[in-house]
């Protein structure tokens, strides 16, 4: 059962293709984050009826909630940021990304996050721009409002993955992390809890698991090449940040992690959330498969104020 009234924690709700995933995380002072609860429910019928049921059963009306957009519901762009006052940055970016996204920016919600670092040597300041249609944002807000579930934030997988990776960071070392969902792979680079670099891959877990023989070998090779090129690119742009590990949440493809270990220039590890999060109240998270399917919703619930 979810724990109501936990002021220091967040509850995240992710609406997947076929299920709801819900995670609640507390952040006790001076201790590891605590996974207070984790639940998954099959998504069938009317979403509003399902949200109302979840509100009653899990007492979602008494916790701070965020929701996680799916990978097809928004666009995530890395681009130069214009030299304008901060209050004007979103309006300026609306037109800068117009030709970079396949949705009308005039009817979209935009958010901008700086990539840490100084604009030096003639290089413009860089940032991440998140673009989502107003119909997507409005629909999600309306769903929570009608279900009487307090929605205080909307997250995307890139930032949820950043939150997870931050728990595994070593002091003064960069960390890369590769995960997969039904649409493909997501590679992120962290340093001191901040997101610095993002790259997507089209290779989905279903494709990787179904491939055999030479086809699987070529898919593995292409992914390893994409990751190594990303490592090289990151090193050129951020030479002061040594990236010393890659965490891989593996797809259900036999031999994938071993192949990456043999192909890349840095150590490759499989993360275990129980090493960095207190999961005593959710023993099912000891299962690697459960960690993989709920990693991003847990990451969303790890958001800090």
Task: Write a concise keyword list for the protein shown above.
single chain; 305 residues; alpha/beta; Nucleotidyltransferase, domain 5; Dna Ligase, domain 1; 3 domains; 5-stranded mixed sheet; 8 helices; 28% strand; globular
Report on this structure:
There is one protein chain. The protein is α/β, with parallel strands linked by helices. The chain folds into three domains: 1-68 and 272-305, Nucleotidyltransferase, domain 5; 75-133, Dna Ligase, domain 1; 168-271, 2-Layer Sandwich (Nucleotidyltransferase, domain 5). Helix content is 32%, strand content 28%. The protein has eight helices and 13 strands. A five-stranded mixed beta sheet has the order 3-2-1-4-8, sandwiched between helices. The protein has a five-stranded mixed beta sheet with strand order 11-10-9-12-13, with helices on both faces. Strands 5-7-6 form a three-stranded antiparallel beta sheet. The longest helix is centred in the last third of the chain and has 25 residues, at 213-237.
Q: Strand percentage, roughly?
A: 25-35%
CATH superfamily of the largest domain: ATPase, nucleotide binding domain
The CATH topology annotation of the largest domain reads as Nucleotidyltransferase, domain 5
Detail the poorly predicted runs: none
Provide the gyration radius in Å.
20 Å
Which CATH C-level class of the largest domain is it?
Alpha Beta
Number of helices: 8
Alpha-carbon distance between the termini? 24 Å
So what's the overall shape?
globular
Written as H for each helix and E for each strand, in order along the chain, the element string is: EEEHEEHEEHEHEEEHHEHEH
**Widest beta sheet: strand line-up:** 3-2-1-4-8
- Major β-sheet profile: 5 strands, mixed
| Total domains | 3
Report the strand count: 13
Helix content: 25-40%
The class by helix and strand makeup works out as alpha/beta
Task: Compute the average pLDDT.
Answer: 90
CATH architecture of the largest domain: 2-Layer Sandwich
